Amino acid sequence: SGGTMASESEAQRALQYEQTLMYGRYTQDLGTFAKDEAARLRLQEGDTPRPRRPSELLEYTQGRCGPCRVCALQCQRFLISKVGEDWVFLILLGLVMALVSWAMDFAIATCLQAQKWMYGGLDTNVLLQYMAWVTYPTVLITFSAGFTQILAPQAVGSGIPEMKTILRGVVLKEYLTLKTFVAKVIGLTCALGSGMPLGKEGPFVHIASMCAALLSRFLSLFGGFYENEARNIEMLAAACAVGVGCCFAAPIGGVLFSIEVTSTFFAVRNYWRGFFAATFSAFIFRVLAVWNKDEETITALFKTRFRLDFPFDLQELPAFAVIGIASGFGGALFVYLNRKIVQFMRRQKTINRFLMKKRLLFPALVTLIISTLTFPPGFGQFMAGQLTQKDTLVTLFDNQTWAKQGLSDEFEYLGILEAWRHPRSNIFITLVVFIVMKFWMSALATTIPVPCGAFMPVFVIGAAFGRLVGESMAAWFPDGIHTDSNIYRIVPGGYAVVGAAALSGAVTHTVSTAVIVFELTGQISHILPVMIAVILANAVAQSLQPSLYDSIIRIKKLPYLPELGWGHHEKYNVRVEDIMVRDIRYVTLNCKYRDLQQVLHSTKMKNLPLVESAESMILLGSIERTQVGALLSNQLSPHRRLLTLRQKVLSEDGHRLSDSSIRFQINTETSSGSPARPALRKPLKPALKRVPSSPADSPPAGTADHTGIALKSLFCANTSAEPTEAQAVAYPKAKRVRISIVEEMILGDKMTPAEILEWEEQQLDQLVDFSSAKIDPAPFQLVEHTSLHKTHTIFSLLGLDHAFVTSIGRLVGMVSLKELRKAIEGSLTGKGVKVRPPLASFRDSTASTTEADTTALRQLWDRHQHHHMPREAGPGGDDDD
Amino acid sequence: SGGTMASESEAQRALQYEQTLMYGRYTQDLGTFAKDEAARLRLQEGDTPRPRRPSELLEYTQGRCGPCRVCALQCQRFLISKVGEDWVFLILLGLVMALVSWAMDFAIATCLQAQKWMYGGLDTNVLLQYMAWVTYPTVLITFSAGFTQILAPQAVGSGIPEMKTILRGVVLKEYLTLKTFVAKVIGLTCALGSGMPLGKEGPFVHIASMCAALLSRFLSLFGGFYENEARNIEMLAAACAVGVGCCFAAPIGGVLFSIEVTSTFFAVRNYWRGFFAATFSAFIFRVLAVWNKDEETITALFKTRFRLDFPFDLQELPAFAVIGIASGFGGALFVYLNRKIVQFMRRQKTINRFLMKKRLLFPALVTLIISTLTFPPGFGQFMAGQLTQKDTLVTLFDNQTWAKQGLSDEFEYLGILEAWRHPRSNIFITLVVFIVMKFWMSALATTIPVPCGAFMPVFVIGAAFGRLVGESMAAWFPDGIHTDSNIYRIVPGGYAVVGAAALSGAVTHTVSTAVIVFELTGQISHILPVMIAVILANAVAQSLQPSLYDSIIRIKKLPYLPELGWGHHEKYNVRVEDIMVRDIRYVTLNCKYRDLQQVLHSTKMKNLPLVESAESMILLGSIERTQVGALLSNQLSPHRRLLTLRQKVLSEDGHRLSDSSIRFQINTETSSGSPARPALRKPLKPALKRVPSSPADSPPAGTADHTGIALKSLFCANTSAEPTEAQAVAYPKAKRVRISIVEEMILGDKMTPAEILEWEEQQLDQLVDFSSAKIDPAPFQLVEHTSLHKTHTIFSLLGLDHAFVTSIGRLVGMVSLKELRKAIEGSLTGKGVKVRPPLASFRDSTASTTEADTTALRQLWDRHQHHHMPREAGPGGDDDD
């Protein structure tokens, strides 16, 4: 005892495989060894790792233009090897997304122009005009809703909440498929083409992610591409940045916004990827506009031309702060309203039932109401109803002051600005009507089941609110505030920029909207007002409501972990022991099948802890519920019953049958999608690496008793940290079905029900053989003292959904996402009461819990002393310090 | 077996303390319980948690203006409770740092003006002018170096590498103290005041962090402030953002830059804090300039006035790309040069020995050389030597084109621009000379042992390089490139902006320099060129050299973890089993003291794994080396020898002595800095919470045999996840010293050396009693299959420096930072060879390792089967599937 362990374990292993020697060398000097190994492998590369290629080469070289073909092959191989590189992937992703974004913008612009053209062409008859104005969007939205519903209902909505969940490590089915991609792109184009107050940002994040997933699958056809969960998540994070970046031509803002809305912890190395892809994408997006002669050169999407020398006065800052605070309240109200509308629609059973039957009625109805209200000759004249979203923004960011100081005719409303003027009203009333109407319209429109986001509508409302404040300021201080000789008039357009950033920041709980507006307008001169307003808006909104995306996550009941707010000191003082579940079921190493059955009946946990014994409670690993079920069903399977029966009755025949059963197992296993031989299906992929190619890799020199273990080990292939759930589920089912068929076929059931029952009882009393089960050998462990803050950090960092709490190897409890969520919400919602950390006052001497540790350790120690070396159990009196 | 565990453990605990009941309630319904508890505690708040206050209140209320004072006290208490809030802290931090930054800028400007004034005043005599020009900076730099050396040598250099290390969780001593703060502020002011090519950005990150640490300590005097490691790290991260933000008045760039240079994984919730503090700080910093009448309103630091309508042509992009790529090479060269200079200075033993004696000679010498070369009437006339760094930047970002197209007299060099003109030279030569000279000067100057950064000098060089390319382009295309009717001339200032961002991005390996230049210049119109250049520069520089900060980290041998580059697929395929150390020493639960001694002699590991037994190898926890040493020295302590002696000789006296020994222990423990009663020293702090205040908290109803455990538990108080190393070290030492004194005092040694030896041998044969040792009950565990990529992620996420590798509870190896570093560098440095993942080709069928798992599990299972239930060891033949 107390010696070296490596010698022992190495000795065990040396008997089994050759690799052990390499491990030894490897740990000695990794750097040099790696280089040697690499050089050796490079030398061999032509032949050993890819056994099929040489033969191909051989064939070609025998032909006439052999050298040519060899060269072409080598080029091809070089290209293929490069295809897997990250930067190729990111460039392709950027390119594709820029094209998609540009094409969609083009299609949307065409749709909107068609509506304008119809509306303009029918100006002889108001009723016809109205019909055209209303029918056109209704048809488009209804088509969008129907198309999405039929093709892929997952494409509905923003997509950012789902991406947030996916990036946390949760697998959402069908969210990243080609079908959803098509549904989202076409649905979104139609929805935005209708002119409803909907946005394209959120859906673009989703589209970019789907694009990345599809591209990665496509590139993997060419091989050289390591499919890996961690890498996929990194690529998805970059894709989110691309989505925002190419939607607004805002690479920096895109990266930051996507980080803020989708991540809790962000790997700085991904940042790079995001920047690269988003910049490339934004570049291509804007270059397309130049090539299409829309623009002379690459500029911002909503370029402003505010003066540079004196953008704003210091004394205007309070007005900007007011915009920020009001936007904070407004943003919270928007989120609240949006949620209430969804909940109302769900709760009203009669409406609901009616709408469920006629799914397309709700979108059509909402579109009808909104487009009726914006009809320009009708109510729309009071709210600039004829402007599209883009035109509205352009006019709101306009450089001029609309409300003139006394001289009302000094300024001509030119071009699209005309829409804001009304002979019997003034600009303030128009703006207020616009804000109020658009506010509820946007909140309502974003609940329509079509692919749509809320960012852009909110952005427009914010800009209008900012403009309102700006115009008021301009009316209040006609000659500006500055006291020096120069007159610097107030620029209401600057206020509009500030308002847009503040309100969109408040709704999404992000600060990066500030960066987005700089990139959108191409001016950064208002940086301080924008930052102040955005921060104030965030502070207000975050203390009132969750972000729009978190709100949707809650509505959709996606698995989530709430953020820790700031200023909540309790979280540092609540500990795991306060929130953990102590009453958990577990599996012991020496338990019987009956115990497994009991455990399965008494708990719904997806992962069961495996402990050494009920006395020691030493945690050995965790085992999935499905695995326990498989163990049990395997033990009670008719197949085994058959075997027993056979063994009892036909003792000489038994040998043959058990042979066939082994062969049969191999069969089952190949059919249940084992990863061992996928080469047959994918000829392009150099998956041959996966086939045992060197002698060291093949199963150890075959003796009869090894075969069983080898087979099992194939089933256990996924004991790694990232198990694929699909396999775990697929295997027992496939096997069971097969077995029952085989059994019925060959034998028929020769046992009576009573006999079966008896046999099953007997089987249940046997000890469990875990060797065929998939065990996670290192489930995540926490200690009782770990603070809530740290637990939250670890859970969100590693994307855990449960962790076991241990004390010196002993299992004492478990914390899952549910407990953590409860604990955080418990400490967050109790705002009014100012929740004190429960039990915090009792804890500081830490005498209690540590004592428990000590006692536990002593127990363990005592047990060992008595078990292993009773001869040495000396007098307890001499070590009493 | 297989039942509920909570009932058992609860039964054990219920005997010991009352709290157990609460745990039960708590887990049932945490939310409501928390609220109840909070309400109850609020009711009690006046009296129980702060037992001293009520008596004070009582005294006051007895006086005349009692109500008044009660009110004042309540106000005070309210303020104190608010002081701990994050936002108060962040506002204070922002305010202080803005003041520091502004004051330093003011002092630096004064210093530089004094030099200019001296230089200008002495223009009658060139020699005197030269003396003044050279002496002034030499004196300042020498003073700065000497002052820093004497007060706090930790203040030398940038500080970003150290902050990166600290934010990784490593404790660097003396890096965040008041002394270092003073040394850094004064040293930096003098260094920058000398006009050497040094920067203030890096040191400002350090200054802000020190400011945060000091502020947090200061605020904790007022209480209401939970001191917590996690919180401190969060605050330090925010402080880094403030440092950059208030240095450049660039809040967004500051936040991003600080994230990129200090973090590997970034918590998005910190982002918020950083933005808040940095914005506030930048705001105050700029407002101070307005109040000081330096500026009319808040604008950018280096405001540019490029035209907005057509910032650049699409066809200029290749030129920007060239700037990016060249900057990438330049940046790598700068890092290389800087490192070589440091290494050269270290290697030259004779120079070194001489310089070590006269520490101030090196700074003086370097300053002398650099200032001689920049002397304006001398060589300085060819490199605009008379301009300060700030003036240089202002001129380089100038809006006009310097190299005129044919008409050389069309443009007048006005004001400070004059410096760039030379009658016998042209602007291209001047710029080239400037770039070349400044390049090596900056690389040399930043090795001087004064507080200084390299960002600003590099930024200036980059701007000059960009200007050079811009002027060349302007000379090449005198009428611009655009083919339409409008003539848009090329703007060389825009090239300077691009160059500055690209070169500083290349040296620091950051993308956020792009954002910093936008904020510095107040214009974002060149966003695409800047982004393209920065990304290309990064791509080139990252593939050639580490970042400047990582380079310094390596030179200084700080504990670090290299970044995973991108495009290295190997990292997904190298696994923990390839890099882990298998041959590790461990401590078993049933080992003897002799084994401990052996382990201590045979390994240098700081943390030793504690396993159940050498056969089972089940990992129970880890124990620090110092703890093992303490156990051993305690066992062999003269004190225990004494006790034995006493027990043998004076059996009736022994009782009294052991009593006194217990009393003595209590004494030792109080003196060794236990956290139990700090209230005596800090009267302002409501540390009384820490003292047992409610009956439930006091040690369980005192019986004699509990005392020992309680005492031990006090020593074990830090078994929590964040042990404070200082205590662990302090305790055994203090105790040992005390004991030997006491022993000598009372008894003198009555044993002969031979007897002592015999006694010690006897003692070493006893079983170890771990109950007094501090054991980390949940050290971090990895599995053999964990990929290098994931391991890196986990290590950098959680700031680990070692992790044990387990397989179904069994310890099989260990990975420390060293192995990980080796593995990453092994796969990174072998660039030319394109290192293949060693052993990757053997692994894919995963048969081998899993088999080992299965075998191990089977062993464990067999052992249990035989040990615990030999009655059931049925025939192994019937479960062979």
Automatic annotation (TrEMBL), chains A, B:
Topology of the protein relative to the lipid bilayer: Multi-pass membrane protein
Compartment(s): Basolateral cell membrane; Cell projection, Axon; Cell projection, Dendritic spine membrane
Gene Ontology terms for molecular function: voltage-gated chloride channel activity
Signal sequence annotation: none
Pfam family, one: Voltage_CLC
Domain of life: Eukaryota
Name the UniProt record assigns to this protein: Chloride channel protein 2
